[in-house]
Amino acid sequence: MAPTVSRWSPRDTVTSMTLLTLTREEAATRSALVTVDRYDIDVDLTGLLEGHLFTSTSTITFSCPSPGAATFVDCAADITRATLNGAELDITTAEGGRLPLHDLAAHNVLVVEASTRNTGKGEGILRTVDPTDGLVYVWTSLEPDEARRLWACFDQPDLKAPHHFVVTAPDTWLVTSNGAPESVVETEAGRVWTFPDTPRLSTYVVVVNAGPFHEVRQQHDGYDLGFFCRQSLVPHLERDLEELVTLTRQGLAFFGEKFGMPFPQERYDQVFVPNLGGAMENWGCVTYGDSQLFRTPPTHNQRDVRAEFIHHEMAHMWFGDLVTMRWWDDLWLNEAFASWASNWSLARATEFDEQWGSFLALFKRTAYEMDMGPGRHPIRGDVPDVASAMANFDAITYIKGQSVLQQLMAYIGEDAFVEGLRSYFRDHAWGNTVLDDLMSAFGAAAGRDLGEWTTAWLDRAGTDVISLEGSTLVAESPDDQDPRPHRLDVASYDASGDRLRPTGTMSVEMTAPRVELDLPEGDLRLLNAGDLTFAAVRPDPTSLRLMLERVAELPDATSRALVIGTCTQLLLLGELAPRDAARATTRALAAERSPALIEPFLLMGAAFAGRWASAAESPALVAELADVTLALSKLPEHRQPALRTLAVTASTDAHWAALEEAVEAATDTDLAWRMAARRAELDQHDPEAVQALLESDPDPDAHTKRLRVLAAHPHVESKEEVWKAFFVDYSVPASRETLELGAMFWRPQQAELLAPFALRYLDELRSLQGGLLNQGVVIRAMYPLGAGNAEFLARAQEAASDERISAYARNQLHANNFVLSRILEARQR
């Protein structure tokens, strides 16, 4: 699962129910008492064509080793009738999303009829009306325990069973589920779609999607590949179809070979749905937010991120779906593995062969930002209930987790790592596991005891700092224990000539806080070369100066990305001035030609110059970035991302002339919107021009781009309209662009205007609507990282301890408060 969010309308009628969260002890007790044989689930979607009614009949066949015992079934919908072994149940006893079951037999059949109108919040299901043509689309997304909102089930990951779906839908709709339909029959009620039994699956990875989708199917390598989107986005799917097919084929082939087990189903569908901010690894039928079908031809970075989505969700078919964690305390492993595996496969099997450099430059900093501050937590934590599982659904789970897996591969070697995975999948297919099962497989393949390694890396929070003192490599722990074991490389370079000359790379396994090295001659020492471990690095003064001045001369993308990543780490450590980070990035961009690094460097350069730098220094640093970006825009292969950054940094006639020429030449609506936002930020807002742009843009989510223009405008009325869309109307569609919208709202040069809004943000956290993941995008997008002041920071630090705010929101506050505190300090240097 990639982080998933969805948006909804407050006009929806919803069922009001305070739901209980399943505890670990309850799950273990029920697991010992219940073995699920199968689910037969009839779903009626006809009430969603013009309304919000969803109905289901769930027939659960299960056994119990202790006849006469009692348990409960999960059902958070409105139960209308229930029978157990033919006897009527008193449905008034249902409470908190649970229906009690008494006097169980050795073999049981439970039938529960239920319905819900809660189809507009994205809690398990979302009904969306496309504003361009009025067509209705429906998707389900059931992690962690949202299946209970739609039908009765034992909603926990270790009670796996085959699922059999029969779906009645309007006759104009297509329906997708976890496999190919066995039959589609026309009836008076609508089309009835019957799907075959799934394999033994957990309740959270089954799916029903429906609507008048456009469908494309292709046969390749023994697989039946399907791609779906809403009708208004057909041209964008058709434009990118060849690439999507290629990435899918490459991923299935790579994972099938490396895991020693081909994907064991012929049909593999990928469905692009509206208002889903991430993706979900439903078995054989992955769903993605259709913002991944880019409305203008995508840049390399957009394609790269989408490719990572495709391979991330595909990796889950093995790790998560085929073999599933027993309980949510291993959720981190599920997600970290898929993130690691996707980068591994992209680097090895696709055109994105510099993926590790791209990952380091673009994403790894988010884990350091969280792990180096007070919001840090162990990768593996105590998860007493399902609600607690999602509280730490963050960069430590995904990014640090995958980095630790990358370190483990370096630690035991790739051959042992792959053999461990193969034995893990072979031994546990269709079952449930705990972390020890995986680590034992790795340890057996490597011939090493990984117990201490596991404890050091997974059960302790914080980031080690590694530095070189003369010839001594030193690791410092953030706690009172020894540093973690690190397997890393130190690369040396001679800087005496016109170009940096490599003089050698030393591999080091650190099992003690201090290790003496016999390094080759060199002026620049690049610590953690290849980015094999997760640690902040503190270069010696000479190496730091040379890194910042001569970053462009480093021979590979990962090394150049490591320099920019080190800038972020040193800013978080309070040991670097933002001007130095900004100018190093601008210097790198002046010579950079790798498409894997251009956009990450542009984004980081804009952050260093615009967000981290002081108000006095920022304009000049932004102008320097814009000038380099203008030069980059003259190179055809980098023109599009360069122009996009130029559009948000433009300040001279030359900048605007280049942008106007580009828009006229290519009719680039995306670039035109970015220019409109920049003009609005400079207080040159033209409402009539924006309205004309809105009317000419065929994108069904174009109104969000108008909001981005208003967000940048330094006037209270414009800011209020955006605020209302976020916190009153909940009308911002879910996508990664939502974070971009938040960044436009909190412009650093508008700090005085924004100060009251920053304090209002803290008040809004106490009353956010919707599910946890729905709230997550608002929490992250609308934190005033660019414009918060000392008063806000003090209030936000108090709010981080306010238990009226959700645990997830408090966790995000801790992390962002730390970064903001470092920004405010850095502006003084």
From TrEMBL:
Cofactor(s) the record lists: Zn(2+)
Where do the Aminopeptidase N-like N-terminal domain residues begin and end?
135-205
The UniProt keyword set, sorted, is: Aminopeptidase, Hydrolase, Metal-binding, Metalloprotease, Protease, Zinc
Repressor among the record's keywords? no
Give the species: Nocardioides gansuensis
Determine if Zinc is one of this entry's keywords. yes
The GO biological-process annotations, alphabetized, read as: peptide catabolic process; proteolysis
User: Might you give the EC number(s) for this enzyme?
Assistant: 3.4.11.2
Q: Which residues form the ERAP1-like C-terminal domain?
A: 526-810
Q: Which residues form the Peptidase M1 membrane alanine aminopeptidase domain?
A: 248-457
Q: Cross-referenced NCBIfam families, in alphabetical order?
A: pepN_strep_liv
Protein's UniProt name: Aminopeptidase N
Q: Give the highest taxon in the source lineage.
A: Bacteria
Q: Which GO terms describe its molecular function?
A: alanyl aminopeptidase activity; metalloaminopeptidase activity; peptide binding; zinc ion binding
Q: What's the catalysed reaction?
A: Release of an N-terminal amino acid, Xaa-|-Yaa- from a peptide, amide or arylamide. Xaa is preferably Ala, but may be most amino acids including Pro (slow action). When a terminal hydrophobic residue is followed by a prolyl residue, the two may be released as an intact Xaa-Pro dipeptide
Q: Which family does it belong to?
A: Belongs to the peptidase M1 family.
The cellular component terms of Gene Ontology attached to this UniProt record, alphabetical and capped at eight, are:
cytoplasm; extracellular space; membrane
